[in-house]
Design brief:
The structure holds three protein chains of three kinds. By secondary structure, chain A is mainly α. Chain A has helices at residues 3-27, 29-51, 86-122, 124-138, 144-153, 157-184, 187-195, 199-236, 247-254, 262-290. In chain A, helix 3 (86-122) packs parallel to helix 6 (157-184), helix 3 (86-122) packs antiparallel against helix 8 (199-236) and helix 5 packs across helix 6. Chain B is an all-alpha fold. The longest helix of chain B is centred in the middle third of the chain and has 38 residues, at 195-232. The chains are: A mainly alpha, B mainly alpha, C alpha/beta. At the A-B interface, helix 4, helix 5, helix 8, helix 9 and helix 10 of A face helix 1, helix 7, helix 13, helix 14 and helix 15 of B.
Chain lengths: 297, 336, 599
């Protein structure tokens, strides 16, 4: 058998599995809808500088003669107090929110997953200590620790992102540990032990690959939650700072004008809502497909 | 069982210590100029020096930490930079309105969220389930601060049927004697039988109440649904049905009771979310609570105030969780 | 008179992702009043679906009743509205479930649950229900009913729980019982008691029983008529004796053979090969920790002084009920546990005193095949990586050689070599077990532990797997330790058998000695508790009183004395020594020491 064939043979079954998963995802029309919108949002985020109608108005430009104009064909979402096109800013905001959320969740996963895997796989005193340490972080009310950290580290978007990762990683550690503990008891891990496979290899070959699905589900749910949190921190003045077109910040600024300019707060809010909603829906859908307990073939 | 409670209590103490340690690190060790933060940017050199001594910044870190703990136990949370009042006193006045809101959201979570989740689980994949799932997933996806603004736009600006904010209208405050016995306005109105003020207070409560209750309702409904679905799939539920027990009994007495543990946990989590959500909406509704207090403190970087709220809310949350855990421990399955 | 219970042309479909699948297709099934009907089939044949369909408890979707009638005293249950069927459930038809633990609600006491059922079905007040509940528990021979009422399900043993379930079914006042594999999760000595109870109730109360089981032996003693269910269809039915004595269908014959296995392969009697494994006074205690400081308050004596020897090429069978310590023994031999004391010598070397490097080399020589091939293969790996895992650890091969070897292993266990590029879930249970076997054999081990290798796969594959194992043993000169609760499997494969009870060996000897001439009362009880096709009456079954004591508070003297039918004074006082019976046959019972008995 040629080497080429070998690669094809190895990859083909994996593609087949992926196809089944995609098919299952597609079956639920809500999930399909969510997947579509998420794709659209990702495209907007990637292409934002190219597709917004008024790229020059995203940041600082001042057009006093066009300020606080109601939505029109020219300015779909109206303009703000500096006369900037809200539609352009909201679209660009997608890029900011998505990037920050992905980084925050990624950071939380990078901290949480290995800690959880170590705790679950080793058990005993290591497990006890690591998990109690994790519990300590979960003893803070949600968001509060992020607020405090962001406040003391100095209000800006990067610090908000770090603050969010610090408050979020314990959830991944917990999830990963629970998975690791249950998978450790599966006979295939016992079989690997009996074979003499080294421990570290067992963790990477048997335990972690079998924990990936719930982590993916959790992450897709969390991206929604994290976007909400970033907007909340920015709304409080602890996240993005002007002139960044961040959604929460825009709503915060709009408060001064919102009685006369309803569009100013409504559109960024709708975008937050829609983004968070589709990620939550996607998470629900993914769970149904990837969780063996609810997976229906 | 007993040893579980003792363990849990001891862990509570450890948590408190850790909370204090973390806040200490965030406020005193990480910033390069803690004294500056403590007295504010506009302080004189003299004030700065005094703060350095007061906080013990000239001493080694462990002595600073000892002092920090001592201060907290004495209720000395420093003075607000804005008002120059002791933070602890301010907390006392701002607390009751916030607690009112949190209680409302908790009641909503329990009496709307749980039934919604139960109904959804029972009627899985029926119209009611789709409706309830979509409502609850929508509720947890909404930015609360935006909801607050949106509701004001509709009910105040457009329809003009509800007040914009505050706990009472100016007219009411001028005409009537506003009771102040416990600080909890609605409760005070009730015990002093002050109906006109109560009516106005309730009217002012509607929008903040709805706003704060949305997230907990959605969260609790989602969790209850999934916890219940898991239990409804258990064999003992099928068995109970096979003995001819009526559906109502099976669902409410058998299934719901068994899903109580996870439900209590999620209600506590929901209370935590409500507490923090007050930070986001109270300022919008000019609600004179902790939320407004911290929102202003954050904007003006009033560190002693931020610190005070953090420590206080976390302690409250830790105690709440402790109670929830002990309640769950009464579950015979945990009692094993 | 029309038939009491009848099923006509029942078709049930399951809607799945791949399309609609027919799971039940029964032309005709008739049960007369007061009779018991046994339905035999393997898992997946549609037995439980049938039980749930009768009571209309089948989850729809995914299930769907396409057509047909289920008639109870002439009334069609299929078209009955939900509120009327609720009166049938319990009142007329009651169900006895497979797993007594998951059938009882863990947060209510036994008393609360049974009283709820009585109040609903007999329309009495709570006060009146209490004595009825106690009476019912008495009827199912549950000792100390008053006390049991106050207990939670997890505080009872498996057998007791199943009696409670039967009591619940009885309290419904139903006349038709559906028993869905009621003894599946019970030990054999307890199983016999439950079977007897069901039969007694049938005779005393004249109830009608639909008995569902996966084992022909069980059904043959308990039922008047039987039907064989395969892929949702009843392929053969009739009077029990007729079907067993003159089976028509090939499948029925295979089922019959599975109960009466013949000896596979004949072995040279004298085996003077070298000793491969010696276990000397092995003990494994697990600490029980309690209290705030997690002090060790007691020990679970899972393995308590085991001695045995295995020669190269032998097959050693280990028999015992759940909790007897056989898994712990094997795990300790595999070095997955550290022993509390004692030695395990592999090829003469003490395994617990080896260096890490030596130990890894030794491990390679001892492999295990697990019971459930569904969980013993990592679902995320391709078969080539599963079979090849030991090769990667122990041998340094380049990719092409590695693949070649994996394919060879694959064909060795009778699977197509293209299969290595597939995931385990694409194979059937029997095929997966072959994959597990080839993984174990990939590093050429000397000793293979077979942990219930056939108990989770279908009967047809069972036979083939056993033959494959025997063939491989000869070809590769393997030595096996075979653990099984199925005595026929052990008998058909083993040279030597040990019987374990509560962490100790009670009897050891050659397979024939143990089967033909068992000496220990426990061994005798164990063998006679299993219904055989030749068992005519259920009374011939042996039952043991009580349940297995916990390994924490061991009984004084002989460990078996609390349940032993032959117990006398000394048994309580002194633990018996191993007594020599003949050649290699030993048993630990005072009865064998005639001097003591005569005194």
């Amino acid at each position: 058998m040629s080497y080429n064939n070998l690669i094809v043979n190895t990859i083909r079954p994996r593609i087949r599995e992926l196809k089944i998963s995609l098919h299952l995802l597609n079956r639920n029309y809500l999930t399909r809808f969510a997947l579509l919108i998420v794709g659209l949002l990702v495209a907007i985020a990637l292409l934002a500088p190219l597709i917004v109608p008024y790229p020059e108005q995203i940041m600082n430009e001042n057009n006093p003669e066009e300020k606080l104009m109601a939505p029109s064909a020219e300015h779909l979402f109206g303009t703000d107090e500096l006369g900037r096109d809200i539609f352009s800013r909201v679209l660009y905001g997608t890029r900011i929110s998505m990037r920050t959320a992905l980084l925050a969740v990624g950071l939380a996963i990078i901290i949480g997953v290995p800690l959880g895997a170590i705790a679950g796989a080793s058990g005993g005193i290591v497990d006890e200590l690591l998990m109690r340490f994790t519990d300590l972080f979960l003893s803070f009310p949600p968001l509060l620790l992020a607020i405090t950290i962001a406040a003391f580290m100095g209000p800006n978007l990067t610090n908000a992102m770090i603050a969010i990762a610090i408050t979020w990683w314990p959830w991944y550690a917990r999830l990963m540990r629970g998975q690791a503990v249950s998978i450790k008891e599966r006979p295939f891990v016992k079989a690997a032990e009996a074979i003499g496979t080294p421990h570290i290899k067992i963790v990477f070959m048997h335990i972690i690959p079998n924990c990936i699905s719930p982590i993916i589900v959790q992450a897709s749910m969390d991206i929604g939650g994290v976007i909400l949190t970033i907007a909340s921190l920015s709304f409080l003045g602890l996240g993005a700072q002007p002139p960044l077109p961040e959604w929460g910040l825009m709503i915060s600024t709009s408060r001064t004008y919102f009685m006369n300019a309803w569009w100013y707060s409504v559109f960024p809010g709708l975008f937050i809502f829609m983004t968070v909603l589709v990620f939550n829906l996607l998470g629900d859908g993914l769970r149904e497909v990837l969780d063996p307990k609810t997976r229906k073939l | 069982m007993k040893s579980f409670i003792i363990k849990r209590l001891l862990f509570g103490v450890v948590v408190l210590f850790f909370v204090i340690l973390v806040t200490f690190i965030i406020t005193r060790v990480v910033p390069s100029d803690p004294a500056q933060k403590w007295v504010g940017a506009r302080a004189t050199a003299e004030q700065l020096e005094q703060a350095t001594i007061e906080l013990g910044l000239d001493k080694p870190v462990y002595i600073q930490f000892g002092k920090y703990i001592e201060d907290i136990f004495r209720g000395n949370l420093g003075k607000s930079l804005r008002s120059r009042q002791p933070v602890i006193e301010e907390l006392k006045t701002y607390l009751p309105p916030t607690i009112e809101l949190v209680i409302i959201s908790t009641i909503a979570a329990i009496f709307i969220g749980i039934p919604l989740g139960v109904a959804s689980a029972i009627k899985k994949d029926k119209l009611l389930d789709h409706f309830s799932r979509f409502t609850s997933i929508g509720a947890v996806s909404l930015p609360v601060f935006w909801v607050a603004l949106f509701l004001q736009l509709i009910f105040y600006s457009s329809l003009k049927i509800l007040p914009l904010g505050g706990q009472l209208g100016i007219k009411t405050e001028l005409i009537y004697q506003v009771p102040d016995i416990t600080g909890f306005l609605i409760f005070d109105c009730l015990i002093s039988a002050n109906w006109p003020v109560l009516k106005d207070a309730l009217l002012h409560m509607v929008l903040p109440g709805i706003t704060i209750a949305l997230y907990p309702i959605g969260l609790v409904a989602r969790m209850t649904r999934s916890a219940l679905l898991e239990i409804l799939n258990e064999e003992y539920i099928v068995a109970a049905k096979s003995y001819g027990l009526p559906n109502r009994l099976v669902v409410w007495r058998y299934a719901v009771k068994n899903s109580l543990g996870p439900t209590i946990t999620v209600v506590t989590l929901a209370i935590g979310y409500s507490l923090v959500n007050t930070f986001l909406i109270e300022a919008i509704y000019s609600w004179p609570g902790i939320g407004s207090y911290i929102a202003i403190s954050v904007t003006s970087l009033d560190y002693p105030a931020i610190m005070g709220v953090t420590i206080f809310s976390t302690i409250a949350y830790v105690v709440l969780n402790l109670i929830a855990d002990i309640v769950i421990a009464l579950d015979p399955r945990v009692r094993l | 008179m029309s038939n009491y219970f009848e099923i006509k042309n029942l078709k049930v479909n399951y809607k799945t992702f791949e399309g609609t699948k027919n799971v039940l297709d029964i032309d005709n099934l008739i049960i007369k009043k007061g009779m018991s009907y046994g339905l035999v089939g393997e898992s997946g044949a549609g037995k439980t679906v049938l039980a749930l369909t009768i009571l209309k408890l089948l989850a729809t979707p995914p299930g769907e009743i396409v057509s047909g009638e289920i008639l109870l005293e002439g009334e069609n249950l299929v078209i009955m509205p939900e509120n009327k069927i609720r009166d049938i459930r319990g009142n007329k038809i009651a169900m006895i479930f497979q797993d007594p633990m998951s059938t009882l609600n863990p947060v209510y006491t036994i008393g609360q649950q049974i009283i709820n059922v009585i109040i609903k079905n007999q329309n009495v007040s709570k006060k009146r229900a209490l004595p009825i509940a106690i009476e019912m528990l008495g009827k199912v021979n549950l000792p100390d009913a008053d006390n049991a009422m106050k207990k939670y399900p997890h505080q009872l043993s498996g057998g007791q729980r199943q009696r409670v379930i039967i009591a619940m079914a009885l309290s419904c006042g139903a006349e038709f019982f559906i028993a869905d594999e009621p003894t599946r999760n019970l030990d054999v000595t307890i199983q016999a008691g439950i079977l007897k109870l069901i039969k007694e109730l049938q005779n005393e109360l004249n109830v009608t029983i639909l008995f569902i089981a996966n084992n022909l032996g069980l059904v043959s003693v308990a039922c008047d008529e039987i039907g064989i269910l395969k892929n949702g269809k009843i392929i053969e039915s009739g009077k029990t004796r007729d079907v067993i004595d003159n089976p028509i269908e090939e499948y029925t014959k295979i089922l019959l053979e599975s109960v009466t296995k013949e000896k596979i392969g004949n072995r040279e009697k004298e085996n003077n090969n070298k000793l491969i494994l010696e276990v000397e006074l092995l003990k494994k205690y697990f600490p029980i920790k309690d209290g705030f400081f997690q002090k060790t308050v007691a020990w679970i004596k899972a393995v308590d002084g085991i001695e045995l020897k295995i020669r190269k090429g032998e097959v050693l069978g280990i028999v015992g009920e759940s909790g007897c310590g056989k898994s712990t023994l094997v795990n300790t031999i595999l070095n997955l546990h550290r022993p509390t004391s004692g030695e395990v010598l592999f090829n003469g070397k003490n395994m617990f005193k080896m260096s890490q490097k030596e130990l890894r080399k030794t491990r390679k020589n001892i492999q295990i095949v697990f019971q459930d091939p569904f969980w013993s293969l990592n679902p995320r790996l391709l078969v080539k990586d599963i079979i090849g895992e030991p090769l990667k650890v122990h041998e340094n091969l380049n990719y092409e050689k590695y693949l070649e070897k994996v394919k060879k292993l694959m064909t060795m266990v009778g699977l197509p070599e293209e299969g290595v590029f597939r995931y385990p879930h694409e194979f059937s249970g029997g095929e997966r077990q072959r994959i597990a076997i080839s993984r174990a054999l990939s590093v050429k081990p000397e000793l293979v532990v077979l942990d219930e290798p056939t108990s989770s796969i279908d009967v047809i594959s069972q036979e083939r797997i056993l033959k494959l194992l025997e063939k491989l043993r000869k070809e590769l000169e393997l030595t096996y330790i075979l653990i099984s609760h199925d005595l026929s499997v052990v008998h058909s494969m083993s040279d030597k058998i040990i019987v374990m009870y509560l962490g100790k060996i009670v009897e050891i000897g050659s397979a024939d000695d143990i089967f033909v001439n068992p000496k220990h009362p426990y061994t005798i009880a164990l063998f006679n508790a299993i219904p055989k096709l030749t068992t005519n009456k259920i009374d011939e079954l042996f039952t043991l009183e009580g349940s297995v004591p916990s390994a924490i508070n061991l009984p004084s003297g002989c460990r078996f004395q609390t349940r032993c039918p032959e117990k006398f004074k000394l048994c309580k006082e002194k633990s018996p020594e191993m007594q020599h019976v003949d050649s290699e046959h030993y048993a630990s019972c005072h009865l064998l020491n005639m001097d003591i008995v005569q005194k």
